[in-house]
Amino acid sequence: MFHLSANRRIQFLKSDLLFVIINASIGSIIEFYDFFIFIVLSPLIAKNFFFFSKHGDLAYIYTLLVFTIGFIARPIGGLLFGYLGDFKGRKYAFVYTVAMISLSTFCIGLIPSSAKIGIFAGIFILLLRFIQGIALGGEYGNASTYLFEHAPLNKKGYFLSWIQITGTTGMILALLTTNITKHALSPLAYEYWGWRLPFLLSAPLFLISVYFRAKTAESPIFLAYKQQRLVKENPFRAVFAKVRNFKNIVFFVFVGAAGVAAIDITSLAYQITFLENTLHIQLQQTNLIVIIAYLISIPFFIFFGYLSDRIDKKWLIASTLFLGIILLRPLFSEMYTIAHTQSNVQAMPIAQNYALTNQTVYNAQSSIRTNNKVEHAEDKSSANHITDNPLVLTTQGFLWMLLLTFILRVINAPGYTSLAPFVLARLPNNIRVISYSTIYNIGYGIFAGLIVILCNYGSHHAYILNATAINQHLPTPYQQPYLVGLWYPILVGIIALLLLIVYVPNQQNRKTNVS
After folding, report:
1. DSSP SS3 for 46
2. Bigger pLDDT: 55 or 17?
3. Which of 442, 71, 499, 490 is nearest to 263 (CA)?
4. Which of 48, 218, 278, 398 sits between 20 and 30 A of 249, alpha carbons compared?
5. First to last CA, the chain
6. Higher-confidence position of 144 and 231
7. Of 47, 12, 139, whose CA–CA distance to 445 is shortest?
8. Is the pLDDT assigned to residue 322 strictly greater than 50?
9. Closest listed residue to residue 106, CA positions, set 214, 39, 206
């Protein structure tokens, strides 16, 4: 059994906990900003960096695929920097992660367009996105463990809730930066070069993060067990060679990380693409809806972090999984209904539109906004109007969409804020970073990382099948094709919820042992 000495415990309790929170959080906010600015600016990335950008659907799908690569790379970063965190120290690892992601984001803003360097533009984007994913995979596990090991025993959930809001805050920062840049420049200047500025802003943000992290003290628990020579020389072997440790990682991936991550990324990343590219709502309104809803949701994450120190974290995680399972489709369906009723000519403001033989307009082929010409349409002027002019919501429609976006985001608060303290308390001290980084990043990198591309592609494919059926005078196979992709996060949530209820005992806290 591992314990802090009495002197070490007194020193720990007298540390400047506020400064610890700032140090752990500010770098994560910047890293999430760097990571999510890609999805915020994905339509312009598709237009500028892919040589087939004239094919709107193909370029946008490829851009989403590149976005997904950043998620898939996260487990690699979790293993690499998790090893460093357990062997060299938590601070040692997360100083490097913020440098990696900031540099790669800055370089994205410098890449010439595909018109100048052809296919290499897309290749460079792919490589830099991969580096971003590795860096973010290493950041979160180290930062969470660092804060967990500083926090008092009865306030770990509350302390870690400040790390849990960094993803939401990073997305808000990305949206604000994009909007400010767009309004500060002329439309022509923004389209030509101004959209690169949010990427280039990563450089000064990186300097801010380095300033704070240079003043960061190492985790007292790491220093204590390093002094007692309990540091593992090879954390990889300790995790993957010991059956017990490896089983714990697999178990917590499926019982919590994958399910919570699926609900989280659906509400955080996919929801933005749904508003802009499926509902075709004006970009300015989309960003404003998301910014306000996310800002309002932040206090709820702090509250549920505070609550997780007082009730069983298992049931808070279960509540997020349950609410996600039953509410994802109704919430997205209601968003679609609002957009539908707010539009006049835009009967279904989705993407490509087909005028059928009975003179009705049907959105068939894609759930992705594009500037392609609409073929097979008898009323091409109407179809092009639907494609080229975004939907502007009325005040009532805007408020309803804001409420639904807020609900969609806040249902994730109980589970997301409880996940880190729930898992970290059950991991050995001396392989805690690599274990948690692996668990978290497999959940977010693999299971949740596929959500944006699968949900968009699922809807895209459903529209194609419906269009084909109508052209052949057959019943349409999907009544709500725009919801088809949501079955994936719902299925992941169901599996996680069942495992959590059946296999995790009701227990508030557990002591951790040295492996």
Report:
1. helix
2. 17
3. 490
4. 218
5. 9
6. 144
7. 139
8. yes
9. 206
DSSP letters spanning 269-280:
IIHHHIIIIIS-
C-alpha angle 122-125-128 in degrees, rounded to nearest 5: 150
Average pLDDT over residues 199-206: 87
What token pair was written down for 466? Answer: 């419906």
Contact partners, residue 178, CB within 8 Å, separation at least 6: 37, 40, 41, 195, 198, 287
Task: Return the bridge partners of 355, or none.
Answer: 361
Q: How many CB atoms lie within 10 A of CB 375?
A: 10
**What count of other Cβ atoms lies within 10 Å of the Cβ of residue 60?**
26
Cα–Cα distance between 139 and 282 in angstroms, integer? 34
pLDDT at site 50: 67
What span, in angstroms and rounded, lies between the C-alpha atoms of 436 and 145?
8
Find the range with the poorest average confidence among 131-135, 378-382, 484-488.
378-382
* Range picked from 354-368, 401-415, 440-454 for highest mean pLDDT: 401-415
Strand partners, 391: 281
User: CB burial class (10 A; 0-12, 13-18, 19+) of residue 122?
Assistant: buried
Other residues' Cβ atoms within 10 Å of the Cβ of residue 400: 18
Report the amino acid identity of residue 65: L
Residues 401 and 462: their CA atoms lie apart, in Å, by 24
Q: Are 455 and 182 in contact (CB under 8 A)?
A: no
SS3 133: helix
pLDDT tens sequence across 456-480: 888 888 988 999 999 999 999 999 9
Q: Is pLDDT above 50 for 365?
A: no
